Amino acid sequence: MHVSRRLSPERRDDRYAEERRQGEQIVADDLERVWGWSGPAGTIRAQRRADFLISAAGLAPSVRTLELGAGTGEFTRRLVESGCELIAVELRGDRGTLPRARRRSR
Predict the structure, then answer these.
(1) What is the pTM of this model?
(2) Who's near 101: CB < 8 A, 6+ residues apart?
(3) Distances in Å between the alpha carbon of 54 and those of 26, 57, 81, 82?
(4) Using CA atoms, how far apart are residues 76 and 25, in angstroms rounded to an integer?
(5) From CA 75, how far away is CA 73, in angstroms rounded?
(6) In this structure, are residues 22 and 97 in contact, taking their beta carbons and an 8 Å threshold?
(7) Domain-embedded: residue 90
(8) How many structural domains is the chain composed of?
(9) Nearest to 23 by CA among 106, 90, 104, 89
(10) Mapping DSSP to helix (H, G, I), strand (E, B) and coil, where does residue 26 land?
């Protein structure tokens, strides 16, 4: 038996609104530090994860890729270093994590 996993328009809108609120809170309360990417060990972990993604996805110059859920851009800027043509998408909008992602990925 197939069960549809599609959300009703109302439920979808609620989930998008919650994502936006979460992004605003991450920036407002500086909750990004919770992920631990900024400390010495976190910086190494983040670069290892980015290196894995670059290798696994075969990112290189002339390769187009799409990053869904760019968040604050921590990995966006690292993936771009591969020389790939990256399009990063972030749902949270201008009041949330997007401005930080833009600053990081210039």
Answers:
(1) 0.70
(2) 70, 71, 72, 73, 76, 88, 90
(3) 26, 5, 9, 7
(4) 20
(5) 5
(6) no
(7) yes
(8) 1
(9) 90
(10) helix
SS3 103: helix
> Are 101 and 90 spatial neighbours (Cβ–Cβ below 8 Å)?
yes
Mean pLDDT in residue range 15-25: 79
- The token pair at 74 is 């921590």
In-domain check, residue 1 = no
Q: What confidence category does residue 49 fall into, taking pLDDT thresholds of 50, 70 and 90?
A: very high
List, as one string, the DSSP characters of 34-93.
GG--SSHHHHHHHHHHHHHHHHHHT--TT-EEEEE--TTSHHHHHHHTTT-EEEEE-TT-
The reply to whether 94 falls in a domain is yes
* Owning domain of residue 65: 9-104
Average pLDDT, integer, range 38-54:
91
